[in-house]
Hints:
Layout: E1 2-4, H1 5-28, H2 46-57, H3 67-77, H4 94-97, H5 105-128, H6 133-140, H7 143-151, H8 155-168, H9 173-182, H10 190-199, H11 203-224, H12 227-245, H13 258-264, H14 269-293, H15 297-310, H16 321-333, E2 337-339, H17 340-350, H18 352-358, H19 362-365, H20 371-387
Antiparallel strand pairs: 1-2
Helix pairs in contact: 1-7, 1-17, 1-18, 5-6, 5-8, 5-16, 6-16, 8-9, 8-15, 8-16, 9-11, 10-14, 13-14, 14-15, 14-20, 15-16, 15-20, 17-20
Amino acid sequence: MTVRLSTVLAVANVVGLFLTAVMVALLFRPGPDGIDALGYHWGRDFANFWGGARLATSGSAAVLYDLAGYHAALKRVFWEGTPFLNFSYPPTILPLIAPLALMPYPVAFAVWSGLGVAAAAWVVRLGRGRFDGRASMLLLLSPAVCFTLVIGQASAFFAAMVVGGLYLRPSRPILAGVLFGLATVKPQLGVILAIYLLWVRDFRAIAAAVATAAALVAVSLAVWGVAPWQGFVRVTLPYQADILANPRGFFSLLEFSPFVAARFAGLEPAGAWAVHLAAVGLGAGTAIVLARRSASTALTVTVLALGTVLVTPYALAYDLVLPATALVVWAIADDVRLPWWAAVPVFVFWITPPLMLLVGIPLVRFGAIGVLPAVVALAAAELRRTRAGAAPTSRA
């Protein structure tokens, strides 16, 4: 028995939107003072981007990488009870977010959200080669996108950089490389991309990506100096490594990588790393090979997008916007039909963001990991059909 992937996603959207509404009502709905149930100002993670932009443009960029100093600064800007937030991005992000400081918080949040929606819709348009209202609505109503908009994350922009770049690469490698270079402000997104670009020998895209990343570094040094970089290397990176090795707090509820799953199962960091590297080495390595050989552009982008997110040990629920974007395009472009064994992990994957926060059972929280082997198996089947002389499935 098979079912259309687009049908699975549509049904999952109905369930996911209900779960998202419950999640927002319980955790993120702001009170009269603008503070939600967890103590954060409405917009939550966007406070990092807007607050970081304010500090950077006021001559205090180094404070971003002083854990106590940054927390104190956010408490002064928002409210005294603001829970701890960490500015985890390297200084290369500062040129990109600096314009936010020119706007009041509500206006900046509205602009940020609107541009995020536009970025997600743009990637769908790229993948389909034209405007596709059905595909756009499937994505924009997905739990991953809705969750990202609620907490003010940047995942839609990263989807535009990575997934959009993958769709542009065959015809416009320089522009694709620029997008890949911009994505280096979240360095873990580049692991699969770098391997794939070397595999296909797209040196124009690689050169454009390197030049763009170097330009971001140069601008950050020219405008803000070396102090933010020193703080990032000496303070932020060790802190990030510690919370990765020892998951705790709110963000541990959002993590779903094999590494974190192994840590929650009781393994020490060394054992968890072994599990993670074995899992992603097999899954992501196979995905890269299949992406290189697949006849379907949409399927190629999908396996690469999944690998890009699932290869990182610090994968969070809002990062799922990247593979969700690719899955929507693949579902529509190739009119994909799934066997039941593949439909189940795809369904769980699709509703993962609200499910992870509402259900604390690790087996449920880490169910999203199963989507990569499912898609890889489908990609392998597609490759066998193509080699056997069947017509390629791609209409992307």
